Amino acid sequence: MSLKLGIPSKGRLQDKTIDWFAQHGITVQRTGSDREYAGQVIGVDNVELVLLSAGEIPKELAAGRIHLGVTGTDLVREKMPSWSDIVAEVEPLGFGHADLVIAVPDCWVDVTTVDDLDAAAAQFRADHGFRLRIATKYHGLVRDYLSGEGVADYQLVDSQGATEGTVKNLTAEAIADITSTGDTLHANGLRILSDGLILQSQATMFASKTAEWDATALSAWSGFSKGCGWADKPF
Amino acid sequence: MKNDRRARIKEVADRLAAGFVSAGALPVETDSLLPADVLLDLYGEDIRARAYVTHDPVQGEQMLRPDFTVPIVQRHMAEGAEPARYTYNGNVWRKQSGGRPTEYTQVGYELFDRTDPAGADAEVFAMFSGMLAGYPIKVTTGDMGILLAAVDGLKTTDRRRAALRRHVWRPVRFVRLLERYGGMTPPLETRSDLLDQVAAQGAEKVLAQAGTPQGLRSEQEVLARIAVLQQDAAAAPISSEEVQMLEQVLALKDTSSAALETLRDMAASFPALQAPADAMEDRLKAMAARRVDVDSLPFEVSFGRTSMEYYDGFVFGFTSPDRPDLPVVASGGRYDALTRVLGQGRSIAAVGGVIRPEALVAVQEGAL
C-alpha cells in the first residue's frame, strides 16, 4: 500500500506546506484544474497525495486512512483525547503559528489573571443567576485548562466563528480563541489574560499510529526521512 | 462469553437491589434522558467532560443520565414524604478514557431524613459495609464537614472565608488562596498595580481610561470588585497558627477513633472544630451500635475532596487494593449542599451511596 500523505486542500496552509517540502527537495504539486482536489508528489516513490480540509486531517489520521498529515497542534489536541496514543508528532513545520488564549473585555480593569477570572465568575453568577459564559470552539482544551487551574462558576458556549464579537453581542462575557497577532482581539476591545495562554499551536507533520505501515509505506517514509531529516521509523 | 459476563453483572446488581428493598427502600426508576440545564448549572463544565450531551429540536440540550442522584432528589423534593429510603438499579453513561466502559450499571441507596444525621450516616454506611463484606476490597471514610467548619472558623474576612469555602473541592486553588491570604506568597503584581492606580486617580477614572464598556458584566460590577480588592488588600493576613491548623486538619489520617481524639485535642485551641468533633463522635457511636469497628475503620479528612463537589459531610469509598486499575467499587456520603442548590431555597438532609456491580464482578474475578 502506498503511503498516504494528507495536506490542507487550499489556502495559505497548503501553499506553506508545498513550500516546506520544496525546501527539502520534494515537489508536491496539484494536478488537473485548480478546482480539482488531486495532486502528486515527485521525489519520493509510492506516495499518494490526499487533499483534505485542515479540520478533517486529525480525524483521518485517527482512523488510519492517511499515514502522514499536516495540521495544527490545536486541532489534534482538541479533537483527539489521548492524542499521543493515536498520532506521533514528526516535526513542527515552523508556520501557521497561533496561540489559544483566554481574553476578556478591556473594560474589566479588575481582571488580568485567571485567578481574577475565577473571582469575577463567582460574583457574576451571584449577580446574574447564571454561570459566566466563555465563547469558544476549543471546548476540550479550554475546559481542561480551566479545570487544571481550579476555576469554577463558568460555562462554555459554542462559537464556531467571529468569536471576538460574542461579548459585544451579549452572548458571552469572555472568549477563548486562536490568535496569531492579537489584532482582531484588540480591535474588538478584548485583552488577553496575563496567564491566559492555553496552547501555542503551529502546523505540524503528524504520523498516524493506527495506519497500516506495510513495507511499501515504510519505504516511502524512508524517502521522506532522507530529504527531511526525519528518524528511521515514523514512531 | 461477553453475554455471560453481562448476565453475571445483572445478577449481582439484582441481588444488591433486592438487599436494599428488603432493608425498606422503595425501588424507583428515572428517565434516561435528563434536561441538561439542571445538571450543567449544578456541576458546571466538568459534567460536559463526563456526560454525553445530545440535542432535541424541541426540548433543547439533553443529557444521558450520568447519575441517579439528581433525578431522585428532584422527585423526592416534588412529591416525597420524609423520612424516605429509595433504591435504584439501572444504567448510567459517562465518557471515559483508557478503555473503561462508557455504559455501566449503578445500584444505589438514598436516605432522606433530617431528624438524626448521625443515625442516617451510620445506617447507610453499615448497609453498604454489610453488603460488601467478604469481597477483597478496602474502605476509607472521611468527613468534608470538618474542613468546612475549620474554614468557617477562621478569624478573617467573610469574603476570604467564602472564597476558601467555594474552593474546598479544588485543592490547587484552595492552597493558592490560603497561601495568599496567609501572607506566604506576595500579592499579585497586576493587582497591586491596579490598586496603586486607583489610589492615585480614583476607580472611575481608571475605568474610563480602559476603553468602551461592553458585555453583560457592568461597570458597577467592576467597581464593586475593585472595592472588594481594596478591602482585601487592607485585611490582615490569616495567622500562621490558623494556617497550620488547616494544614493539620487536611493531613489528618488515622483510624476513626484515633482521628476523633486528635480532633478533640485540636478543638481545645480552635473552638470551630468542636461542633464537627461532636458530630463525628455521635456518628461513631451510631456506627458502633451497628457493629462497625470504629477502632480500626480508616479515616482521612481529605478523602473524597476532589471526587464530587457536593459531598459536604460524611463520605466513604470502597476500592480494590489489588486492582488499582478498577474504578471505585462503591462510594457515597452526605450531600445536603446538593439538595440546597437543587431546591432553590429549600433543602433536605440526604445521604446515599452507589455500588458498581461491574467493578464488584471484576474484583471477584481477580480474587479467583
From TrEMBL, chain A:
Biological pathway: Amino-acid biosynthesis; L-histidine biosynthesis; L-histidine from 5-phospho-alpha-D-ribose 1-diphosphate: step 1/9
GO biological process: L-histidine biosynthetic process
Source organism, top-level taxon: Bacteria
InterPro entries: ATP_PRibTrfase_cat (IPR013820), ATP_PRibTrfase_HisG (IPR001348)
Record's keyword terms, sorted: Amino-acid biosynthesis, Glycosyltransferase, Histidine biosynthesis, Transferase
SUPFAM superfamilies named in the record: Periplasmic binding protein-like II
Enzyme Commission number(s) from the entry: 2.4.2.17
A GO term, aspect molecular function: ATP phosphoribosyltransferase activity
Reaction(s) this enzyme catalyzes, per UniProt: 1-(5-phospho-beta-D-ribosyl)-ATP + diphosphate = 5-phospho-alpha-D-ribose 1-diphosphate + ATP
Function, in words: Catalyzes the condensation of ATP and 5-phosphoribose 1-diphosphate to form N'-(5'-phosphoribosyl)-ATP (PR-ATP). Has a crucial role in the pathway because the rate of histidine biosynthesis seems to be controlled primarily by regulation of HisG enzymatic activity.
Name this protein carries in UniProt: ATP phosphoribosyltransferase
Source organism of this protein record: Neptunicoccus cionae
UniProtKB/TrEMBL annotation, chain B:
Binding-site positions, L-histidine: D67, F68, T69, R94, Q106, E110, R305, Y310, Y311
Listed Pfam families: tRNA-synt_His
Entry-linked InterPro entries: aa-tRNA-synth_II/BPL/LPL, HisRS-like_core, HisRS/HisZ
Signal peptide boundaries: none
Any GO molecular function: glycosyltransferase activity
UniProt xrefs under Gene3D superfamilies: Bira Bifunctional Protein, Domain 2
Claim: Transport is one of the keywords in the record: no
Residue span, Class II Histidinyl-tRNA synthetase (HisRS)-like catalytic core domain: 6-210
Annotated GO CC locations: cytoplasm
Keywords, in A-Z order: Glycosyltransferase, Transferase
Protein name, as recorded: ATP phosphoribosyltransferase regulatory subunit
